[in-house]
């Protein structure tokens, strides 16, 4: 039994690595993704990543009788020369209670992480795998971290983040992780509550819309 478990883990890791290297995206699971940037020192920027997955797409495990939702997450960041500068692995486990099952049917699962990077051009690839049923989704996009020190005339500002939800950082079905620790903490977390970026840019007239940005004095 122990050897079978070990082999199963090896096969899972190999499947994740092969999926990460594919050029074309895998769309078994739909992913929306947003990247922002905040200056933390003159040369360094913290880049939070927020990924949103429709909860309805993860209900298959519950329908098959699984007691928990298990998601394997891989994130890889490459620079403009194709060299990997950041990578991380994570696993999200959520016990499927009646309350969580009801939320899965109507709300997305949001995953957050972040990296410290220097100004430049990058490509990020995000992969998620539903470990209970084996479905995979990938998302790849290019992004730029600007050098705000070279802003000659205008007031340098960070990304502008829009959101309509502020939740406690340990809210069920959400994960707030920082791959690179920093002394100032996560810029979107205040008094134990995190502003969730509206990755899909969908807002309701019944909710307040929060806008967050930082301005820097050079």
Strand and helix layout:
Elements: H1 2-21, E1 32-35, E2 38-39, E3 45-54, H2 60-63, E4 68-79, E5 84-95, H3 98-106, E6 108-117, E7 120-130, E8 136-145, E9 161-163, E10 165-168, E11 174-176, E12 189-190, E13 193-196, E14 210-212
Parallel strand pairs: 6-11
Antiparallel strand pairs: 1-3, 2-3, 3-6, 4-5, 4-7, 7-8, 9-14, 10-13, 12-13
Our Rg estimate from Cα atoms comes to 18 Å
Total DSSP E strands: 14
Please provide the ordered H/E string of secondary-structure elements: HEEEHEEHEEEEEEEEE
Which secondary-structure class do the elements indicate? alpha+beta
Beta-strand fraction estimate: 35-45%
Which word captures the global form? globular
Number of helices: 3
Q: Let me know the average pLDDT.
A: 82
Identify low-pLDDT runs. Answer: 1-7
End-to-end span in angstroms? 61 Å
Give helix % range.
10-25%
Q: Please give the largest β-sheet.
A: 5 strands, mixed
């Amino acid at each position: 039994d122990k050897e079978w478990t070990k082999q199963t883990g090896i096969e899972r890791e190999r499947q994740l690595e092969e999926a990460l290297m594919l050029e074309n995206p895998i769309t078994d699971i739909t992913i929306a993704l947003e990247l922002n940037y905040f200056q933390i020192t003159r040369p360094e920027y913290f880049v939070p990543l927020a990924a949103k997955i429709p909860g309805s797409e993860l209900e298959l495990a519950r329908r098959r009788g699984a007691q928990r939702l298990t998601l394997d997450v891989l994130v890889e960041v490459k620079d403009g020369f194709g060299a990997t500068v950041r990578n991380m692995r994570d696993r999200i486990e959520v016990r499927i209670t009646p309350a969580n099952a009801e939320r899965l049917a109507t709300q997305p699962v949001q995953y957050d992480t972040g990296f410290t990077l220097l100004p430049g051009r990058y490509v990020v690839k995000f992969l998620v795998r539903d470990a209970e049923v084996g479905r995979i989704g990938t998302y790849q996009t290019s992004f730029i971290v600007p050098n705000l020190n070279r802003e000659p005339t205008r007031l340098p500002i960070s990304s502008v983040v829009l959101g309509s939800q502020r939740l406690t950082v340990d809210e069920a079905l959400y994960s707030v992780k920082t791959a690179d620790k920093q002394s100032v903490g996560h810029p979107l977390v205040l008094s134990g509550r995190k502003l969730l970026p509206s990755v899909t840019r969908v807002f309701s007239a019944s909710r307040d819309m929060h806008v967050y940005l930082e301005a820097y004095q050079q």
